[in-house]
Amino acid sequence: MALPFKISVLVFIKDRDGRHLLIRRRKAPNLNCWSPIGGKLEMATGESPFECAVRETGEETGLSITAADLHLFGMISERGYEGTGHWLMFLFDCHKCLASLPVEIDEGHFGLFDRAGIDSLELPPSDRTLVWPVYDAHRHSFLAYRAECAPGQMLAMTVEESHLSPHLEP
Questions:
Q1: pLDDT in tens, 4-26
Q2: What's the sign of the alpha-carbon dihedral 59, 37, 73, 168?
Q3: Model-level pTM?
Q4: Rounded to 5 degrees, what are φ and ψ at 123?
Q5: Which residues, including other chains, have CB under 8 Å from residue 41's CB and lie 6 or more apart?
Q6: Which of 41, 72, 78, 86 could form a disulfide with 7, with the two C-beta atoms 3.0–4.6 Å apart?
Q7: 138 burial type by CB count under 10 A (0-12 exposed, 13-18 middle, 19+ buried)
Q8: Edge-to-edge, what's the strand order for the sheet holding 34-35?
Q9: What span, in angstroms and rounded, lies between the C-alpha atoms of 24 and 115?
């Protein structure tokens, strides 16, 4: 299907109590749903996924990080997401903790949630089915997969690469 292709990052950040930072989005995609922070790469400038994750973290939360504070644990290629485009998403776990809840921004407001509480929130369907299970299983390793997300079709996932990172502690 001929749709635009977008490249983005999601950054999983916790506070000192281990609660996850999520934003309730005011804009599409994922309007009114809770998800990790992130955004699209500035492709015209040649921005890398790591640079994008650092920039988006600073812009959305005020937390100052570097690429060394990030661990890339997953890469997802979503074909036909919401019938509006194809996405290549890079998933990062941030090792630096938040000191407090960030102030509200034009993209939405923030909340802090323990992992069990996230499952009861209004989440984008692909986050519930793909993103959070990958976070749970691979945040200390790496996984690359492709997902067929056509509206009205059964979600299909193909693992393209998976490995454990022995130097990272669980």
A1: 889 999 999 999 999 999 999 99
A2: positive
A3: 0.87
A4: -115, 155
A5: 7, 8, 9, 47, 48, 49, 52
A6: 41
A7: buried
A8: 34-35, 20-25, 108-113
A9: 16
CB 150 within 8 A of CB 80: yes
Rounded to whole angstroms, the Cα distance separating 129 from 96 reads: 26
- Comparing CA positions, the residue from 148, 151, 146, 152 lying closest to residue 134 is 146
- For 93, the token pair is 């776990």
CATH superfamily of 5-164: Nucleoside Triphosphate Pyrophosphohydrolase (3.90.79.10)
Q: Per the structure block, which two tokens stand in for 69?
A: 């504070």
Q: Which residue has the tokens 């939405």?
A: 108
* For the chain, domain boundaries: 5-164
Please give the structure tokens belonging to residue 73. 């644990």
Between CA 163 and CA 99 the distance in angstroms is: 32
